[in-house]
Design goal:
Helix content is about 20%, strand content about 30%. It has 8 helices and 24 strands. The chain has helices spanning about 1-15, 25-45, 45-50, 85-90, 175-185, 205-210, 245-250, 320-325; strands at about 60, 70-75, 80-85, 95-100, 100-110, 115-120, 120, 125, 130-135, 140-145, 150, 155-160, 175, 190, 230, 240, 250-255, 260-265, 270-275, 285, 290, 295-300, 310-315, 315-320. It has a 5-stranded mixed beta sheet. Helix 1 packs antiparallel against helix 2 (about 25-45).
């Protein structure tokens, strides 16, 4: 639409200003229109700027070439585990894959720092998607079945036949590849797509938070637009925790949506976890081991180390504050 408006303005300007005595001048507005239409409707389309993967290649730990300090979205389902490096997802924005026999839509938006995994189910059928642009700095996806437009950050359709519908969430964990492999050693790890070698980020600035780029850089202070938060939404109640405070405190006990929680960050100040706890339980960290007041011990993925029941994980997201606040209005902090 913007391209068409600009084109019309150019044509009107040409009609008023051009020297119509020249027999070729009348062609200029038409050429301008053609150029604008090309860039607005083809060359500058999101899915032509950020291409879908040419192919998905996975490797086991013995053949993996991805650095262990890279951030990944880790997914485990039906005895199968996979890790998707954010380095690749940040360029492609989304990909369709299967795990344990189930289709999944794995997504990431670097401008919002939002990793999300959904079931790509539209009208009770699995479908594919394409990147069509951004909405409030968040990637927008269009399904091929109904042409509805879906927000990457929430999975909600905001335009089209399925407006107000929501894609089913699929559980995942954001962590370093090293941490994910410690808990899921049989993981298949997405490898680099050589046809997009020059498109992927070359360093760790974005993932580590040292980048200061306008759109994807991180603020160094708390509760600024590009500050990091850990966001949760148990029982539909949204709350955000400041990343800097969380690094300082290491562990927080809280109650959100009627659910008692423990939020913990590991000694590497990169990996984090949120678990449901018993009302009376309190925890402290010894290294990267959670220990309650009864001296029961748990790994940072919630597994009991001494025969107790495992802790129940709560889906949590690391995100820029501006994104979490906008897409979760009324969020607590």
């Amino acid at each position: 639409m913007v391209g068409e408006v600009i084109a019309v303005l150019f044509i009107l300007y040409g009609i008023i200003k051009f020297n119509w005595k020249s027999k070729f001048t009348w062609m200029i507005p038409i050429v301008i229109l053609a150029v604008v239409e090309y860039f607005a409707n083809f060359n500058m389309n999101a899915d032509h700027m950020f291409l879908y993967p040419s192919h998905l290649a996975f490797a086991d730990t013995a053949h993996n070439k991805i650095e262990l300090n890279r951030l990944v979205l880790g997914v485990h389902y039906n005895n199968e585990s996979k890790a998707y490096p954010i380095r690749f997802l940040g360029y492609h924005h989304h990909l369709i894959d299967t795990i344990g026999g189930k289709a999944i839509l794995v997504t990431y938006c670097t401008v919002c720092r939002t990793g999300r995994v959904y079931e790509p189910i539209v009208n009770h059928q699995a479908t594919s998607f394409r990147l069509v642009g951004m909405d409030h700095y968040n990637a927008m996806l269009e399904d091929h079945m109904t042409k509805s437009w879906w927000r990457q950050s929430t999975g909600e359709a905001i335009a089209g036949k399925l407006k107000n519908n929501v894609l089913p969430d699929f559980p995942f964990i954001q962590s370093t590849l090293k941490e994910w492999l410690m808990n899921h050693p049989d993981t298949k790890i997405l490898q680099i797509d050589s046809s997009h070698l020059e498109d992927y980020s070359k360093d760790l600035a974005y993932e580590s938070g040292t980048s200061r780029k306008q759109l994807t850089g991180t603020d160094s202070l708390s509760w600024h637009r590009k500050s990091w938060v850990v966001g949760i939404q148990p029982n539909g109640v949204a709350k955000a925790y400041d990343w800097i405070s969380l690094k300082h405190e290491n562990i927080i006990h809280d109650r959100v949506g009627g659910i008692p929680l423990v939020i913990a960050i590991q000694s590497d100040t990169v990996n984090f976890s949120v678990f449901k706890r018993n009302e009376s339980d309190t925890f402290h960290l010894h290294g990267d081991t959670l220990i309650d007041q009864k001296l029961n011990k748990y790994s940072m993925d919630g597994k009991s180390l001494n025969g107790q029941s495992n802790l129940l994980p709560i889906q949590a997201f690391q995100e820029f504050w501006h994104s979490w606040q906008f897409f979760h209005p009324g969020t607590l902090k």
